[in-house]
Structures are given as C-alpha cells and as structure tokens.
Amino acid sequence: MTRIGLIEDNIEFRDNLAFFLRRDRFAIAFECDGQAIDRTLAEHPWDLILLDLGLPDEDGLAIASRLRAQQPALGIVMLTARGSLDERVSGMREGADAYLVKPVDFRELMAVLKSLLRRLDTGEKSAEKPASSAVEKPPVWQLRPAQLQLVPPEGAPIKLTGREAKLLGHMARSYPNAVARQVLVDSSDAVLTQLDSRHLEVALSRLRKKILDATGQGLILASRSEGYLFGAPIRLDTDDS
Questions:
Q1: Backbone region of residue 123 per phi and psi (left: phi > 0; alpha: psi in -120 to 50; beta: other values)
Q2: Nearest 10 degrees: Cα torsion 99, 124, 72, 39
Q3: N or C: which end of the chain has fewer CB within 10 A?
Q4: Inter-axis angle of helices 106-119 and 11-23, to 10 degrees?
C-alpha cells in the first residue's frame, strides 16, 4: 500500500490534491504546511511525498535535500510555481524524482506518480488496488436540506442558506463525481434560477469559506474541465427533506 505525504501550505490546493489522490486509490499518510516537518515524517510512515517549494518556514529545496540524504528510496515530486530551467535543474539536483510546475493538470500528476512508483519498484497495482484491510474509510459528512445544515463528522452542524443547501444537494447526489458548472447555473430549481456564472462563483466561494472557517477544510473543489465537487464523502439525508 503506497502512502503519500502532502507538504503544501495552500489549503485549497492541498484539499484538491488530497481529493484526487484518494479518488485514484492512493492513501494519504499526512498533510502539512511544512512546519515541524521532521516530527511529522517521524510519526507517519510514507513512501512518496508531494512537496511545494515555496513554503513559509523552510525552502522546499532544503527539505528535499535533507530527506533525500535520510531516505534514499523516498519518492519526491516537487510541485511549484518556479518554472525556469535553472530552478528545475536545482530541484532535480537536490533530490526530486519529478518536477511539475503549477498549475498542474491532475491527469499529468497521476501519470507521473504511477510512473515513479514503477521506477521505485513499489508496483503500480499497489496504488490502484489497495488491500481493503489496509484502507481506512474516510469519515462521512451529512447534508440535512430541510434543516439547512451541513453536519461534519466531528463538530457542530454548519448553518446553510437555502441556496447553499441546494448547491450542496447537487454535489451530494453526484459524489464522487463533479457537477458541471452549467448544470448549477441552469438548474430549474427556483433558488438557483437567478444565478449566472459570476454569481455562482461568489456563492461557492462563500460556502467554501464558511466550511473552512468551521472545520479547517476547504471542501468545495473546482475540477478544471468537469465543474465543482465536494471533497469528502457526503450523504444526503433524504428522511430530512
């Protein structure tokens, strides 16, 4: 079972990475922003890391160099906005197995990860078909549309507006697939008929911030070509509606 660590201080991008990795049957060993990285890595077993270079407390190149010296077999994929040739050469020199420039297409990222796993001789099948006994089921969120509540696995229910409940309802019914942007804009539901693309972006941004403020997780994710999705298992409470 391949375990991946995410070292990225951009919460929204990190949430997107975690969602797509889990959807492709990778296990997330840990997520962090670079602070206390040595303690984090000591506490969590991992095989491969996705490493941002622009971290606030320590440069990702220094982290990569240290980790490569400590664990020669570790797979390191750098994800960064630094795209010049000199910077890419520096990244590979400091120990990266792959160097991807943001914004990265998730299809390309998955191809790079699977290629790297083959090179590391961990086996592509272990990433695509993990043993069920080794996979921890993620916690499930609950949407209660009649009560206008989104209930996290832990913590108090989050109060929603009618519009937010309707938007989440579409995502809950489509999970784990994305809902096309135009589907949300063109919905026949009376609450949504006044939305255009610009107002939809504002509504989703406010909803994401509300969830982030309450739980520390920004779970309204944008999939470039597909639309929007909820980044965790979510159940629609039909008995409540």
A1: left
A2: 80
A3: C
A4: 60
Q: How far does Cα 110 stand from its chain's mean position?
A: 13
Q: What is the DSSP letter of 128?
A: H
What's the Rg (C-alpha) of the chain?
A: 19
Indicate the length of the chain as a whole number. 241
Cα separation, 141 vs 130, whole angstroms: 23
pLDDT tens digits for range 164-190: 999 999 989 888 788 888 888 766 454
The pLDDT score that the predictor gives to residue 35 is 64
Q: Rounded CA gap, 170 and 49, in Å?
A: 33
Round to whole Å and give the CA distance between 241 and 232: 21
Residues 6+ positions from 227 with CB-CB distance below 8 Å: 178, 179, 180, 181, 182, 183, 184
User: Which 3 state secondary structure label does DSSP give 50?
Assistant: strand
Query: What residue has token string 């911030």?
Result: 209
User: Distance between CA atoms of 112 and 110, rounded to whole angstroms?
Assistant: 5
Dist. CA 152–CA 141, nearest whole Å: 5
Contacts of 30 (CB under 8 A, 6+ apart): 5, 6, 40, 41, 43, 44, 46
Tokens 């020199």 correspond to 93
Helix (H, G, I), strand (E, B) or coil at 145: coil
Give all domains of the chain, ordered by start, each with its CATH number.
Answer: 3-134 (3.40.50.2300), 141-240 (1.10.10.10)
d(CA 164, CA 145): 9
How far is Cα 158 from Cα 170, in angstroms, rounded to an integer?
A: 18
